[in-house]
Design brief:
Layout lengths: L12 E12 L2 E12 L8 E8 L2 E9 L3 E6 L7 E6 L3 E2 H10 L7 E6 L2 H7 L6 E10 L2 E8 L4 E8 L6 E10 L6 E8 L18 H5 L3
Parallel strand pairs: 7-8
Antiparallel strand pairs: 1-2, 2-3, 3-4, 4-5, 5-6, 8-9, 9-10, 10-11, 11-12, 12-13
């Protein structure tokens, strides 16, 4: 939770909001994930939320970091419905983006078990659990590439960031299998940093602040 009255018991976090808006035919999709990762780099995220809105309905899931990961999920799909489950504390893919910004030298490497991103799990309809993965780090001059390969999921994620502080994320590429049976195919998403500004965005909520969207190329 965001503390109404922060005190010495409050935990400082780096919050990552990841949003996607797109159309498939006539269908508009709106997707948002929020990850709350301790800046002390001494724990998994305290909370992760993910929501999807589209014309068929809404889906929402939330992970709370307790003795185990406690997950609540709500869906309009009959086969999913309202669910609650617990997971052991494997690595969370959602965390790794924040970890890159805070302490990339401590990124996990080698053969691992990782819980994929909540957005991927939602759209692939895969079971929310840890999957076997291999993570590697490659240095290319001033840039570093962190790659995760999930053999069982036929999925690869590569994140490119500046080697020097503040380790800004410059691009990412995600390739994964999509569809079923004869219609199954590999899809690739590529994203490259366009523009960035440093500003108190939560205060830029009036019509006079619309010019910031131009500054960001939105």
């Amino acid at each position: 939770m965001k503390a109404d009255n922060p005190d010495k018991t409050s935990v400082p976090v780096l919050k990552l909001n990841s949003t996607k808006k797109f159309y498939t035919g006539i269908y508009p999709y709106s997707v948002m994930s929020s990850t709350f990762y301790p800046v002390g780099d001494n724990s998994a995220s305290l909370k992760i939320t993910n929501s999807v809105q589209e014309w068929c309905g809404q889906v929402f899931s939330q992970l709370n970091n307790k003795d185990k990961f406690e997950v609540s999920s709500y869906s309009y799909f009959e086969s999913e419905g309202d669910e609650k489950l617990t997971l052991k504390k494997d690595i969370l893919e959602n965390d790794l983006w924040a970890k890159i910004r805070i302490n990339p030298n401590a990124l996990p490497k080698g053969k691992l078990t990782i819980i994929p991103s909540f957005q991927y799990i939602r759209f692939s309809h895969k079971q929310l659990k840890a999957y076997n993965a291999t993570a590697t780090v490659t240095n290319n001059d001033n840039l570093t590439v962190y790659s995760i390969n999930y053999p069982e999921l036929q999925r690869n994620l590569s994140i490119t960031f500046t080697t020097a502080f503040p380790h800004t994320i410059e691009s990412f590429t995600e390739t994964h299998a999509s569809g079923f049976g004869a219609n199954k195919k590999m899809l690739t998403t590529k994203a490259t940093l366009n523009k960035r500004i440093q500003t108190a965005y939560w205060q830029q909520n009036r019509n006079k602040d619309l010019h910031f969207r131009d500054s960001l190329g939105l």
